[in-house]
Fold:
Amino acid sequence: MEENNTIWIEKYRPVRLADIVGQNEIIERLESYVRNGNLPHLLFTGSAGVGKTTAAVSLAREFFGESWHMNFRELNASDERGIDVVRNQIKQFARTSPLGGATFKVLFLDEADALTNDAQAALRRTMESYAQTCRFILSCNYSSKIIDPIQSRCAIYRFKPLGKAAISEEIQKIANIEGVAVTEDAINAIVYVAQGDMRKAINALQGAAIISPSITGQMVYAITATARPDEIDQLLDLSLAGDFEAAENALSQLLHERGIAPNELLNQCYRTLLNRPIDPMLKVSLIDHIGEIDFRISEGADSDIQMEALIAKFVMTSTKKHL
Amino acid sequence: MDWTEKYRPSHLADIVGNGTAVHQMLDWARGWKRGTKPLILYGKPGIGKTSAAYALANDMQWEAMELNASDTRTKAIIERVAGAGSTSGSLTGAARRLVVLDEADNLQGTADKGGAKAILDIIRDARQPIILIANDLYGLASDLRAACDPVQFKALPARSLIPHLKYICSVEKVQCNDQALKDIADNSAGDMRAAVTTLYAASIGKQRIEEPDIRTSMKDGRASIFQLIPAVFGRCAGAELVRMSYEVDDKPDAIEQWIEANLASLKGPEATAQAYRYLSRADEYIGNTNRRQYFMLWRYATVTMLLGTNVASGGHGIHERISSPRRWQRMASSKRQKGIRTALLGKLGGLIHMPQQTVRDGYLNLLSILAEKDPLFFARELDLDADQLGLLIHDRAKAITIAKALAVERREEDKREKIKAQKKTAPEQKIKPAPAVTPARVKAGVLETVLPDEPGSPPPPQQEKQQKAGGRQSTLF
Structure:
């Protein structure tokens, strides 16, 4: 069964622009570039797993048809981030003429925010000097890490984190093709775990599908080592009610029996608190405590002690009212 | 074809805005002769610096030659390309050849070894006009800056972008409604290239452009901070504030500055103190993020400063104009101060063979007192400009006078050198005895070789010579 060895995020990576979900406005504009055979320099920004790379590759495929491999080049700036890449590799690709009747080539620079400032500075005039033969597509997580002169040369497309509808639709589709059954509870779990990241969602689905062909929410949380939202709620409720012992038990359950990493637990507590309708001043204090613990653990402090200290701090904060 | 290239102005008259700068360039070009200082055009991206340089060459019917950061710019390469361009005549018979050194503030330390020095050498020896282009004037080495005349290009006001955008629309036969044009202009923050790029990206495959069409392809950030800041001081749910801050796409440290700039709108000292407590907490997170490169901490900075300030404001909102961070202006000027200080300490350190730090901690006062006694000597010996001398002797007005006097002195010296050089080329044997005299004079402590018996050039002022000798002694201790 070779089929089972393929990784689903590659197997189900959209091939055509039209197959990319959740970014309708952007896709509509990109398709219009294809129809008109014209393309400005582009800058794609957005968090991971929202379709930036897929959009760039599909765009090239539709733009050049058969000859797309010859006229499209993908470079990951995280691997080669110095100025020499721009002066040698990029310039070399950009200056040679396009093949197979295309009017220009496309260079896709993934994770361009990893380029050093020197390299970015070198890139700016290259983009103009060779605009006749080569268009650039840059992708990044934060556009603020791209120097202004480059932003000024690009049309900027901001990819949004994917909504619940987009993710659940895609998951349902893949589950149908793969012949696995997913409950609604499981879909909700996948959406919660993914946080708008399609790659994470598909990974969670494939992970759970390996265990069993009928997937439940429980399995999704287990395979991704994530606490269920109600478990987080319970932990917060207990500590904010001032019941240290019960809260400590809940914490120990999550950390030691469920094997959830302290980082992940902090992450989930943060998200839950941020969206909880509680007194704003209390909210800031609680999140500040989480931040402090996060920092200490990252500095090498003992995570068990720090997590318990956090719960204790929560208990104190809630009883004393703020601070 | 890309519209930014297609509609790049080819004449100075077509450059939008920056009239003063354009006139300054034109005057410079018309009056250009050997020895005229090169220009540095500086200002934000996308406001016409490079275009203006090429338009100038075009208007003057000069050839233009460019060297930018995408080329390797080591000393050898700059000398070969720009040096040849600037000292030899033009090939095509154009009157002159304009050398454009784009991105002059981006000479790369190791990759462009000797680049800055090479530019300086070429500038001093140029036989053709040179224009340098930079975003940050103070990103250039101070001696390079001093060797050029600065021309500032200012960001274009939004309304001045619109006519140009309208013109492009009419040529391209695209209908774009006024609001959409205004949105493009407002969002470009004075950057014409960004505005044209946005229009171009929105227009492909469309005849009519309306506001929603441009929303996907606008220049990022900048504008939406003006939505975030009022929300922080107004009534807005915490989670919503955090979401907005992600959309603004300014980094937390920038948002922090914006919030601080607007804290004056809080009511009463308690509120201000509370806001500062949260802001300083956020600042700790930002500091730790940067120090540890642990970016997870960013979100705590975001929450503490946004939600904290929101709590402190009590939702009263901002009633005045939103202020931009003053600290940035201060930082720009302190960056300049720092540059001057470093250059001065470096030169003093060279004089007394000590690292800059040691000079600053233990010897600056002494040197300062000595320099106050004999500023001209110090200025001459260490090649100080007015800023550096002013810092040393704590007297700006005097420093400026002395720097001017020194410049006059230098020019005369140059003249003498030239006459000497001319003489040398003609009857070489006749001056033979002169070298025998020169080494002796050098030993006596006079650095420049002056031939007192040289006819045609005025003898150097006696008084200065004495000053010089005196000054020399005082630093030999």
Observations:
- Chain A touches chain B through 60 residues (CB under 8 Å).
- The longest helix of chain A spans residues 280-298.
- The beta strands of chain A are 42-45, 72-76, 105-110, 134-140, 155-158, 181-182, 214-215.
- The mean pLDDT of chain A is 89.
